Amino acid sequence: MANTIKKIGVLTSGGDAPGMNAAIRAVVRACSFYNVDCVGIYRGYQGLMEGDFEELNARSVRNIINKGGTFLKSARSMEFKTIEGRKKAYEQLTKNNIDALVVIGGDGTFTGGVYFSQEFDLPIVGIPATIDNDISGTDFTLGYDTALNTVVDAIDKIRDTASSHNRLFFIEVMGRDAGDIALNSGIGAGAEEILIPEEDEGVERMLESLRKSKMSGKLSSIIVVAEGEKSGKNIFQLAEYVEEHLEGYDIRVSVLGHIQRGGRPSCFDRVLASKLGVGAVEALLDGDSKVMIGLSHQHVVRVPLTVAINGEAKYDKELRRVADITSV
Ligand code: ATP
To answer: Which of 71, 85, 80, 120 has its CA nearest to residue 100?
Structure first.
C-alpha cells in the first residue's frame, strides 16, 4: 500500500443511523493500524466548512461500538450545496493537512462527496449509512438491520393489543423511496397487507384482502405502510377509507416515527460497520476515490459513488410473493 495519504478525515452526514459510531471506530482504528493520522469532523459537511475538527486515535473511540446515533453528530448543510461552501471546506482541509475523506451517510452525502472530489481532486470514499437501505451497489446499508428489528419489535407489541380488542391497525414505518423496511418487517411480524413505494396496487386490493381475511376468520389485522407508498392517501386517510368501505372493523393508526432511527446497533450492523470502515481506509490507501464500500453477497466491494447514487432500486419481488402467500 504505497501512497501519499498521511491524514484522513471522517464525518457523518444526513440522517443518523445505528452503526455510524461503529463505522467511525473502524475507520479510526484502521488508520491507526496503517499509521495514518485520523481527524474526526463534527456535524458533517457543515462542520467541515467551519473547521470543527478533532484529532482521533485508537483510544478516542473506545466504548462507542455499541452506541446508537453518531458521536461526531450529523447535519444537513445547504451551504455545502454551493461551490462557495465547498471551497470553504477545501480551505479547511488544506489548512489542517487532511489528504482524504471518508464520508458516512446516504445518497445526498455521496452526491456532495462526488462534486467535492471532482472539483478539488480530493480522494473521497463513502460508507452507506441509512436505515432505508435505499443505496444501490450494496446489499445492506448501516442501520437498516437495527431499524428492522426495532420495527418488528414494535409491531409485535401492537399486535398484542390488536388481538386483544379485535382491531385493525395501520402502522406507518420509514421508507420514502424504498419499501425494504415495510416489506421485511411486514413479513417478519406477520402483517396482513404491506404497502410500499415501489408498487401501487391500489387501495381496492387492500380492501379485498381485508374482506377475505375477515371471511377466513381473522379477528385482528396489521397493515404495514411505508411512508412513501403511492396510493395518494396518507395513513390517516387510508384508515378512514377502509372504515368507510368495510363494516365491523375497529381501526387504529400508529406512526412509529423516530424510534426507528434510535437504539443500540444490532450485532449485524456492528460487524458490517467494522468491515466497511476498514474497507474504506484500505480503499483510500490503495489510491481509490469516488467509490462506496458496500457488501455484495457477503463480500466487501468498491462501487463507483455515481452507481450508488443513480443505480436501479433493488426491490425484491420474491418478498412480495412470500408476503401474499403467508398472509392468507
Ligand atoms: P438520508 O438518506 O438519511 O437522508 P443523506 O446523506 O441522503 O442521508 P441528505 O440530507 O440528502 O442526507 O444529504 C446530506 C448532506 O449532503 C446535505 O445536507 C448536503 O450538505 C450534502 N448534499 C446533498 N446533496 C448535495 C448536492 N446535490 N450537492 C452538494 N452537496 C449535497
So the answer is: 120
